[in-house]
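Work through this:
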Amino acid sequence: MFPKITDFIQSHIWELPLDQLPRWQSPLIKQVRVLILAFKGFNRDKCQLRAAALTFYSILSLIPILAMVFGIAKGFGFEQTLELLLQEKIASRDMVAQEGLDWIISKAKLLLESTRGSLIAGVGLIVLMWAATRVLRHIEAALNDIWEIKNSRPWIRNFTDLLSIMVIAPILFILAQSTTVFITAIIQDLSKDMELLGHLFLLMKLVPFGLIWLLFTMIYVVVPNTKVNFKSALVAGIIVGTTFQLSQWIFFKSQMGISKYNAIYGSFAFLPLLLIWIQTAWLILLLGAEIAFANQHINRYEFALGSQEVKPSFKKLVTLLITNLLVKNFVEAKSSLTAEEISAILHAPVRLVRQCITDLMNSKIINEVGKKNSQDTSYQPARSVENLSVSFVLQAIDEHGLGDIHIHESGESKRLSQTLEALNQEIERSPSNILLKDI
């Protein structure tokens, strides 16, 4: 049974023609494909390792981040609400957790107080913001890697985008966690007089989920340095936002058996639980990024399960096709193309396209240019199109990297080196070595 399921997931599900399936079945198969691609990407991109690294940086920046959150909450009048929320969610059932949380909150408030007034405090505020944004920069790097983006934003735009997330995210999170209690109290009071509100109570319970969906969707749209389709981000936000809320409810309700850690860790028993919760949160966030990526590129990416192990000869062909497309586009004075547009025109997997673009950029064949009214990076030839022949492009890619590593020199190595050089010269003189603009 299990071999049949594995075979269906790996091959048969990709052979089903979606346009020939019943209307109710086609979207279902498509979403199953998205989830399969997302979990494959989750393993391929080493998201568990990335989550561990993000957990490490989160712990290092825990007090500065909490101080920043308290500062924002105080500005909007949520400081007491936030503190009561933390007490209720984390420390309501265990004195050890209470002591650990009280210590963290006191240090965060002390750090926040130290940033007020005087020049030294101004420096402290800068350090506080730097520590808080450091985690966000690592999140951006992780999401950029998932989206195959090699470059970050310009530092000014990076700072403004991250600052907006620092302000909005805590507000949404606090509202999502505190809304349930507020709504419960209001609805229960009013439902005594109006029977209809008793039924609305169930619908109002979805409000916290909606706020968390909005938070994750905002992260997936804003953080990656590329244009993310809002629908794809929303689908991912709903899936992982719901997962996050449910996992959080299970975690805090069960308290993960904190009492059994008391004898081992003593007053530090709160720490392993905190690590587990933060690690779980990062795993959920990264899985959502994989879902958003797979959802956005499913139509071109679904046939690319083996794009990470593509043959070198096929990768060369795709590289030449990309260069040919950009050269012709440039000669015809058309707008520069993004990786997404190249992928759509060539009907090629976007991951493979991005890999080839990286090779071409490293070889100085193409370069990045800004695109009007778009945050995406686009590309155009970096050399004269009169020099970009088939041989020139392939040799430029082959010669990128280190070539002067010392190896044992022998008669065989010298002869093979001369043979390769002669072959390259023959290819360069070949009638088939034509300019890409003429193809």
Summary: The domain at 309-400+418-438 is CATH 1.10.10.10 (Arc Repressor Mutant, subunit A). The chain has 18 helices and three strands. Strands lie at 337-338, 366-370, 377-381.
